[in-house]
Amino acid sequence: MSTRGKIHGEWDSVSTLYHTVVGQLTIPIAAGLVDWVHDNAPLNRPDVSVMDNGCGTGIVSSVLKRNYPTLPLLATDFSSGMIDEVLRNAEASGWTNFQARFLDSRNLTSVETESITHLFTTFMICLAPDPDQIASEMHRVLQHDGILGLAVWAEPNFGFFEAPWIEACQELDPTYEAPTIMDPAWTKPENIRRGLAKAGFERVEIKAEQQSWDWENVNAVSTYFFDGQNPGNTKWQDSWTGRGQSLDKVRPLFERKLEEAYGQSDGSLKGSMPFCLAIARK
Question: pTM here?
């Protein structure tokens, strides 16, 4: 199977759960990004053409349509499962002036050059293959002086899970090292600035922030991590079982480490995720 096909299939399986679990984390981030872009390039003017690239289940699209219901909006993703989910959300919410297309972000073939005024992409480029090519394609489809609004995780491993997972595994196998989940070149402010400049973007502004991530109990976290089929989590699990190790043995240790790191007196877990927002112009 090609890299593109493999990743496409991985995200198909996670799409339904993703909106519920990750949505609570990313909706506030998406709302902040939309507001920041609007403050710099108003979204309510009559000549806008907006794109949500790597739309997932439509979290950014939902924020845009809630704030600007008549906005012309194109959502794209390389997972048919994600596109199916965003179309269900669009129909249930009665969105108008909306299209969703199955497209690989490395080759936005059906999007005309310089046809988009506002382009959003959230938590996609840091996880996708060939991020530099994705950035180049986004630059191509933006109009002159068009604006990009981008969000990425600020660390190359998913920070909330990283220390508990590695510590749990190393209790059983001290030589274990977790593989990197995200491309380091598209995390951290200085790397994002470099990548956007390489693609031709100008007037880059970046914010590094933290978003709280709260869970009802440790079982909710463990169920999502082990059973949710998120490709980042399964990459770590595969790296463990590939060494002949058992997920059943490491799971209770992982849960204990989560409680030690984030546990509250009422049994809930509270942590945070570092992320970066960026805006840039063509």
Answer: 0.90
